[in-house]
Amino acid sequence: MNPTLLTSQGPSLFSADGLAGLIFLIMVAVMLLGGLMACTSERLVRSVAGLVVCFVGVAGIFYYLNSPFIAVMEMLIYVGAVSITISFAIMLAAPEQSKKIGPSGPLAGPLGFLTAGLAFGGLAVLGCRTVWPVQAKINSGSMETIGVRLLNEYSMVFELVSLVLLVAILGALILARSGRNH
Amino acid sequence: MSLTLLNVIVAVFIAIAFAALNAAYLVWAERRGAARIQRRPGPNINGPFGLFQPPLDGVKLMAKQLLIPGDVDKILFMVAPVLAMAPAITSFVTIPFSSHIVGHNMHIGILLVFAFASMGGMALLLAGWSSRNKYSVMSSVRAVSQAIAYEIPMLITAITIVMITGTTDLMGIVKAQTGGFWHWNIFPFKAGLFNPLMLMSFLIFFICSLAETNRAPFDLGEAESELVAGFHTEYGSMGFGLFFMGEYANIVIGASLTTILFLGGWDCPFGLFPGVWWFLLKIYLLIATFIWIRWTFPRTTIYGLLNLSWKILIPASLFNLLLTAGLLKVF
């Protein structure tokens, strides 16, 4: 995040930088709002809706970071496919009338707040103490460079990811088949 | 920056106006076309040829009370129609109508259109679920499973075109097809690429755009006899109107994409006066075909529909992708 945004010497709101910063803040707000909706709502479908809002915020951040390809892919895959699959799963698996789930487990209640506070504090201290060097632009971030990199330098990772997908598909097939016999 | 920002704002306004106008008058065209095919008059009272019917319908829809049934999930119920309309309008911003008329040309334009089109499924799902009506839920699940099934061959076909033209820029795709109709991607006479299956590719894309927009013969999501109406059963007044406008805006986008990918965009078939009029002529011819198909073909069943996609269209489009890749490598 651009540190000048928070100081009084930052760019004026109506300059290009100011508008970009405003858009960044809006996207962060959208992301946080979506995350809160996903975590706090009692109905699962509302949680999925929150997740979609959060994904849109993430896509906005990617767009802000000058990689429109990743942003569009975030929309296409996460909003268009993953969320719909999740909501299908919810509709098929769980009855939508959710019961109010009371506090349970050792991490609920004050201890939970403590854990969350510790995690938040630790991350905040780390984030503030670390010096964030501004990286030089690695490459253009366009579709061509991503494709070339994926199929040359990172081809191993690429293939491993497809292996994970294969395992997931096989697992789903086995689950579906065993379900059919019973 | 300020100039491009202004451009985008103006483009969004024009896109909204274009989408709304098209939605209104395509409903009129649809009703007139249906009436002509079924040998009845259709809307012909208000104005010449019933041309005043769409604004009157709009006034009627907007003047109606916005009823929200008691049991629905209010927030999602109200968000869903907006979510159905907004992505469709956003897609218009990047569609090039001619070499000069484009809101904001992006080098990943085709991906952007598909990304926003895929958001429509979420809107249908939320509409069906939040209505708290089992028929609405069933209908939205039908519509969305259909949309997902047909998105795959559509994307594969689009990838084929991207491979042939070597760009994801919608303007670039059109520019790669200039100079007479034999340069269009639909015809297999392209220099250096003799792919006889391009016509089939075009058919796959056209069928997918029919199915993506839930048009007959693939309108399984709307069935009066089985599902009361569809995912919009509980919606009245402008909520219903927004769903309808979203549907027609999606039809225009589907026709525009088909035109850009296969029919040379704003290019003239004989190399004369290329311009926005050719583009509009092509998309309205395609839309007329949409209407013609809707009122002449009986609807399929849900199994036939899903089988068509998973067992015929996806393998065929994958085969064409492989063939195109091989031909590009050979020539």
Provide an overview of this structure:
Chain A folds into two domains: 1-97, NADH-ubiquinone/plastoquinone oxidoreductase chain 6, subunit NuoJ (Four Helix Bundle (Hemerythrin (Met), subunit A), Up-down Bundle), CATH 1.20.120; 141-182. Chain A is built from six helices and no strands. Chain A has helices at residues 16-40, 44-64, 68-93, 110-129, 143-151, 155-181. Chain B has 331 residues and is mainly alpha-helical. Chain B has one domain (2-330). Chain B is built from eleven helices and no strands. In chain B, helix 7 packs antiparallel against helix 9 and helix 7 (198-212) packs antiparallel against helix 11. The longest helix of chain B is centred in the N-terminal third of the chain and has 36 residues, at 2-37. Chain B starts with a helix and ends with a helix. The mean pLDDT of chain B is 83. The interface between A and B is medium-sized, with 24 and 31 residues.
Text of the CATH class of the largest domain in chain A:
Mainly Alpha
Largest sheet data of chain A: none
Task: Note the total helix count of chain B.
Answer: 11
Q: Give me the secondary-structure category of chain B.
A: mainly alpha
Shape of chain B: globular
Form type of chain A: globular
Count of the domains of chain B: 1
The tally of structural domains of chain A comes to 2
| Proportion of helical residues of chain B | 55-70%
Strand content of chain B: under 5%
Fourth CATH level, the homologous superfamily of the largest domain in chain A: NADH-ubiquinone/plastoquinone oxidoreductase chain 6, subunit NuoJ
Count of β-strands of chain B = 0
Specify the CATH architecture of the largest domain in chain A: Up-down Bundle
- Secondary-structure-derived class of chain A: mainly alpha
Radius of gyration of chain A: 21 Å
Low-pLDDT ranges of chain B? none
Helix content of chain A: over 70%
Q: Report how far apart the termini of chain B are.
A: 43 Å
- Give the averaged pLDDT of chain A, no decimals: 80
